[in-house]
Every structure is written in structure tokens, then in C-alpha cells.
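Let us practice reading a record.
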Amino acid sequence: MTESISNRITINPQVCHGKPTIRGLRYSVDSMLELLSSGMSMEEILADYPDLEQADLLACIEYASKLARVKSIYRIAS
């Protein structure tokens, strides 16, 4: 993980059921990505969530980018 991700994205089983969050706060990475993908600008999100910084949202995007770089995807039998 790069320094921006390791300083900003945390995973703690006691916070949000172990989902990746921003700096141990109860703002999950997936929630922030969902807001961004819905069309909200970073400025709008930062206005709604004053605890967050632009670097936090950029770390969420970087985290998602790293997850998307999988070499193979396998179908799991259902």
C-alpha cells in the first residue's frame, strides 16, 4: 500500500464491522465511493462531512484502484 492509503484507510474489526474506513472514523470507503459515483463532487462531500479532507477521498479512490487491479476473477459456484 502506498503511504497515502496506509495513513488514511484503516481496517478495524471494531469499526463498521471491519470494513475499510477513513482514518478509523465511521466513514466507510465504499460509502464515499458511492457518493462520488452518484455525481457528488469532492467539495460537496467535504461540505457534508467536515471531519474529512480531500486527501481522504483521494485515498478512497486510490484504494479502489488497487482493488480493481486483480489479475483474474473466478466464478464461485453457487
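A brief commentary: The domain at 3-67 is CATH 1.10.10.10 (Arc Repressor Mutant, subunit A).
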